[in-house]
């Protein structure tokens, strides 16, 4: 009799376990594969909230947190059992994040920064007068300028004019691998126009670096860069152009050849670049197309490879993805060990990229002249944040592995740490307020704005985990 009851009991437990496993797997698959599945899973039952298991699936292309509506995080990974240390770190970050979330502390002093930028952006004294285009761009050539400088006061005017200045020449840009148009603006300023491929609410699933450039992300990243005091992204703004009148009319023959009208009479083009194909054009609505206009920096740059770059092959992991002591390997490398400051720059870049969800920072663009440095207050100092187009693709997923330089090296500059604390809980609304000045606003959906606050807290949680392991003097420099 006892034996029968036991067997009955065991069978029940087994069945329960099997059903649970199937459900967990289905959930993982649904979230990964189905773009629409994520909002539904936001209403997960309460008993799933506290689950701190890792959800594995070979469909997940890199380690990430997936956020539920209640703010709780799930770890999704494909690196099954390869790196138990990594999971203990991620789990610790999650626990610290939950604690910080419960603290419910509000940030202070952020308004001073936001108001200063607002004031600068609302100044466009020339709006009524005629602009002297030939002499206009000399101030922009001095970018990046310090936040509290007189030069900074001209930011509003620069953005205003860049949005309206006549385009005098348009050619296919040979820089990088994605489609972009190099334009010469009235007065001689050169800019890159990255056209809109997606609406602002697009959700990119799959690889962390997937999809095409998000023009709205490129623009939002520039404003965020200023709010956080990085001042290291090139001047970027939204601009709606009449593709026919403003680009095609001034295009080189090579670019012109790639233009055509689709069945609905929308003007399209595909350009000439590594990923450019006639079967994959970008199309205006009628003749009008939005895009990010990025002003070319007037600086000599050199490029170095990011030690934490991805392999861009789904089945092949980079060593930083599985080796928790990767930082010491990097520090042995001659390039970075020369200057501890360089490592702090890399951590600052990683934090910025994590906030915006950019997993595509394969290279760093630095000043060619090592003696020349941006302002001492900038967080990423010697590194320019050029190319922020692969950002804001998925507001439910936090690509935690972008933060690897932080949780592997456990070092952060004090000034950046203080800035992040200043914007705790208010980063989304700060960016919203500043983005309102852009002609393509609203740039980000409310989900992206709240993702910024969640991710900021995850960064602070990661610093806390470092402080649990090392002394404050070792972590905050
Ligand atoms: N504002 C700028 N000022 C100076 N140089 C720039 C600027 N924007 C882009 N560049 C140069 O052009 C290159 C290509 O630009 P970008 O990285 O935005 O294009 P991409 O097609 O996304 O490139 P990739 O495929 O390498 O990611 C950069 O690596 C940089 O050297
Ligand atoms: Mn790119």
TrEMBL record:
Transmembrane domains' residue ranges: 12-33
The protein's name in its UniProt record: FAM20 C-terminal domain-containing protein
PANTHER family: DENTIN MATRIX PROTEIN 4 PROTEIN FAM20, GLYCOSAMINOGLYCAN XYLOSYLKINASE
Residue numbers annotated as active site: 360
Coiled-coil region(s): none
Lineage: Eukaryota, Metazoa, Ecdysozoa, Arthropoda, Hexapoda
Chain sites annotated for binding Mn(2+): 213, 387
Protein's organism: Allacma fusca
Domain FAM20 C-terminal: 259-476
Binding site for ATP: 178, 194, 294-297, 365, 387
Cofactor: Mn(2+)
Pfam families per the UniProt record, alphabetical: Fam20C (PF06702)
Keyword ATP-binding: yes
GO molecular function, one term: metal ion binding
Keywords from the named record: ATP-binding, Disulfide bond, Glycoprotein, Golgi apparatus, Manganese, Membrane, Metal-binding, Nucleotide-binding, Transmembrane, Transmembrane helix
GO CC entries: Golgi apparatus
Compartmental location: Golgi apparatus
